[in-house]
């Protein structure tokens, strides 16, 4: 026991987890209701203290597609997650299982660390955090294991960067060589939408007559609100919709790809990198300069107060928000 403590092992937690595995093995039932053979030692067969890998017998003999179908049931039924979130977790876990060098039934922490290292070293923190979330759900809720419990989520860093200048935004606009990217820039700068909200925007979430957007309109898990866009964005959006064959999402590109596009053309424009998040910050600052109160800026950015009392003192009706927005008269291109 003392030696285990010297090595940094949480002895009570370790013993508790070992007991849980032993009881499950002796009862003959593993995660997801699968029968787990045991060797009489109190450990699932092949997972005793002499083994470095934990044997997930419930995965033995299963193909990746079979595992993902069972995992889908956990996400959709047990967790009742939104369709988009379900697909995201499935995509991440498929990547992980295909990365593992060996059968899925013998996954260990080294596999997790090696896979996450690729994301930590080569991608944004948000992408890395996304992978950690999926691993936690997969191990905790599907496999019934605490193997991913110790994985830490990266803490968001406060953005100390100043919003871009109007001149820099116009230079970026001029550097873009597609109507799609010009339109996205103007929408980011005049709506306050988050990156994922714009790139998952569907045709029925846009009211062209009112120049109004209702992001997350059909979501069961995310807050719905309304925001608006100006005449500059209106002209671009209507032309883009006329010239494009829209299936579901208006801008059918992945959010991470969009960031690369913005970085590339910022460089070509000779300005410091401008991201969709920077344009959202610029929108908030510009609306403040135009005399819009913080309560309404928050509303346009989807930060509505949760309390009934707070809503009572400010009129957040669609008509009032439209009036406040139009009075501000925000411009990007001038």
TrEMBL record:
Residues 30-49 are annotated as: Disordered. Keywords: DNA integration, DNA recombination, DNA-binding. GO terms for molecular function: DNA binding. It holds the Pfam family Phage_int_SAM_4. Residues 62-143 form the Core-binding (CB) domain. GO terms for biological process: DNA integration; DNA recombination. Gene3D superfamilies: 1.10.150.130, Intergrase catalytic core (1.10.443.10). The keyword DNA-binding applies. InterPro entries: CB, DNA_brk_join_enz, Integrase-like_cat_sf, Integrase_catalytic, Integrase_recombinase_N, Integrase_SAM-like_N, Tyrosine_recombinase_XerCD. Signal peptide: none annotated. Residues 159-326 form the Tyr recombinase domain. It comes from the Archaea. This is Tyr recombinase domain-containing protein.
């Amino acid at each position: 026991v003392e030696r285990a403590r010297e090595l940094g092992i949480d002895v009570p937690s370790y013993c508790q987890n070992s007991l849980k595995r032993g009881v499950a093995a002796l009862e003959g039932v593993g995660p997801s209701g699968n029968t787990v053979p045991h060797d009489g030692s109190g450990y699932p067969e092949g997972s005793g203290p002499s083994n470095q890998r934990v044997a997930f017998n419930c995965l033995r003999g299963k193909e990746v597609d079979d595992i993902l179908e069972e995992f889908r049931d956990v996400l959709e039924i047990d967790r009742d997650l939104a369709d988009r979130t379900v697909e995201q977790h499935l995509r991440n876990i498929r990547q992980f299982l295909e990365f593992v060098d060996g059968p899925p039934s013998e996954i260990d922490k080294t596999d997790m660390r090696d896979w996450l290292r690729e994301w930590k070293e080569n991608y944004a923190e948000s992408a890395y955090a996304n992978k950690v979330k999926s691993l936690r759900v997969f191990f905790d809720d599907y496999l019934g294991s605490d193997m991913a419990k110790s994985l830490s989520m990266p803490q968001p860093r406060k953005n100390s960067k100043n919003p871009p200048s109007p001149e820099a935004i116009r230079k970026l606009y001029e550097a873009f060589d597609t109507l799609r990217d010009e339109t996205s820039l103007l929408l980011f700068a005049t709506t306050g939408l988050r990156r994922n909200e714009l790139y998952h925007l569907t045709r029925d979430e846009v009211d062209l007559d009112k120049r109004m957007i209702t992001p997350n309109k059909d979501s069961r898990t995310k807050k719905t609100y309304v925001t608006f866009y100006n005449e500059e964005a209106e002209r671009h959006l209507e032309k883009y919709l006329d010239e494009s064959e829209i299936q579901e999402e208006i801008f059918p590109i992945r959010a991470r790809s969009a960031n690369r596009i913005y970085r590339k053309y910022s460089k070509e424009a000779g300005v410091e990198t401008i991201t969709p998040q920077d344009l959202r910050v610029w929108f908030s600052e510009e609306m403040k300069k135009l005399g819009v109160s913080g309560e309404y800026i928050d509303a346009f950015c989807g930060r509505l107060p949760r309390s009934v009392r707070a809503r009572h003192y400010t009129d957040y009706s669609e008509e009032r928000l439209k009036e406040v927005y139009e009075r501000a008269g925000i411009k990007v291109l001038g």
